Amino acid sequence: MFKTRPLFFNWLKLTHLTKGLSDNEARAVKITANFQFIMFLVPTILMPVIFFTEPPETHTFSFIHYFLLVIPLGIARYLLHKRQFTIGAVITLVTCNYHIVALTYAQPDDPAPFGFIIFAIIPFLIFQRQNVFLRWFFVLMSCFLFLTSQYYYKILGASGLFGSPKWVVEADFLLPPLVLMFIFLFLLINQFVKAVNLAEDKLLAEHKKSESLLLNILPNDVVHELKQNGISKPRHFPSATVCFTDFEGFTKIAESLSPNELVEELDRCFSYFDSLMERYKLEKLKTIGDSYMFVGGIPKTNTTHAVDSVMAALEIQAFMNQMKEIKKAQGLPYWELRLGIHSGELIAGVIGDKKFAYDVWSDTVNTASRCESSGVTGKINISQATYELVKDFFQCEYRGEIPAKHKGNIKMYFVEGLLPELQREGHTQIPNQEYNRRYANIVSG
């Protein structure tokens, strides 16, 4: 029983219809659905009253038009479930206006025409702002129907289907205040809707800014999980690749630069590194001083993380070499880079309650750091584990067993570049079709 309660309340709140919509779109859908429900409920409750209090000759008319109301409303509700929101809203308003027209035609003194006043407001609420034509079409239609009904009965004194009006007045006495009332009503509602739209636009702009900032800190999947559940559980990744970079002689060169020049130089390098992360499906984790750390294979697991990481490392290396040539030609000091890469299992997750960060833990991280510190300036140094994953793609030079702090001896390799058979002719750093074929085999395998 208790399990059914959330389902019932979700149904009542139309969660199934509004999921994935913006606040503005969701509000329009909810108002449309609630309007349908009210227009179904009120006549349904009144049917027994009509049967026992109205003259028998009106019953057939009332029952026919009751079904002419609820059947189209049912169709309109079905269209909402099919996410045909605009068509569902149009059918709803056409049906409801027709129902009031029928009631007005049947009984001249029935208060039903005042329903047109409500229907003149509803279009502002159930149509999106881009549907300007539909909004004003239904607003003016309801206004026209109300004024026509008043003119027909209260001024002309014409008869309805089941009788004549009990009172008739002069046109100049009735119509001016009614027209002014509608003008005032439309201006008021229109200004109100504009104010709501403006507030929502500002809120949406601020939301996008905060969302963008959050996505710069955390991976998209983690952000989604935090928004949905309020927490992000740590995940174990059986295979991932960690890369560290570090500038050689950073401290010495930094002493010759002003603070602004130092930050600008670092920003230039790290911004380029950042541009490679999305292209190669990698995740930047952090920068610590002049060190840059990224990981392949998280937060979405994949089988190409080692190849992707080495490809990114080669581009980073090429970028730094280009920067070196430019700086040397200008007689300026330049930075050179060491890169260390290792593959293995790790745990990734969010730490902290306020200034939280997405981080990774395991011996894989420590080994990757040792590969970087045990490397050579201008070289990409990888472990045996990473070599086994990329040897079919890259030329590698075996260095032997290199001693690493607190890790003993580790078999290491220098990555020289793409294998000759995987290079595009005339462009040694650009992969060819054979590379793409092998890469696709890893993805599918």
Short description:
The chain has 16 helices and ten strands. It is an alpha+beta fold. Strands 1, 2, 3, 4, 5, 6, 7 and 8 form an eight-stranded mixed sheet that branches. It has a two-stranded antiparallel sheet with strand order 9-10.
Summary keywords:
alpha+beta; 10 strands
Overview of the molecule:
- The chain has 445 residues and is α+β, with helices and mostly antiparallel strands.
- The protein has 16 helices and 10 strands.
- Strands 1, 2, 3, 4, 5, 6, 7 and 8 form an 8-stranded mixed sheet that branches. A two-stranded antiparallel sheet has the order 9-10.
- Helix 3 packs parallel to helix 5.
- The protein is elongated and about 105 Å long.
- The model has no long low-confidence stretch (mean pLDDT 84).
Q: In angstroms, what is the radius of gyration?
A: 35 Å
What is the SS-derived class? alpha+beta
Secondary-structure element pattern, one letter each:
HHHHHHHHHHEHHEEHEEHEHEEEEH
Terminal Cα separation, in Å?
Answer: 46 Å
Number of strands: 10
Overall pLDDT confidence: 84
**What's the helix count?**
16
Parts with pLDDT < 50 across at least 5 consecutive residues? none
The proportion of residues in beta strands is: 15-25%
Please render the helix and strand layout as text.
Elements: H1 4-12, H2 15-18, H3 23-53, H4 59-81, H5 85-106, H6 115-119, H7 122-126, H8 132-155, H9 171-217, H10 220-229, E1 235-248, H11 250-254, H12 259-279, E2 282-288, E3 291-296, H13 305-329, E4 336-351, E5 357-361, H14 363-373, E6 380-383, H15 384-390, E7 394-404, E8 408-418, E9 423-424, E10 427-431, H16 433-444
Parallel strand pairs: 4-6
Antiparallel strand pairs: 1-3, 1-4, 2-3, 4-5, 6-8, 7-8, 9-10
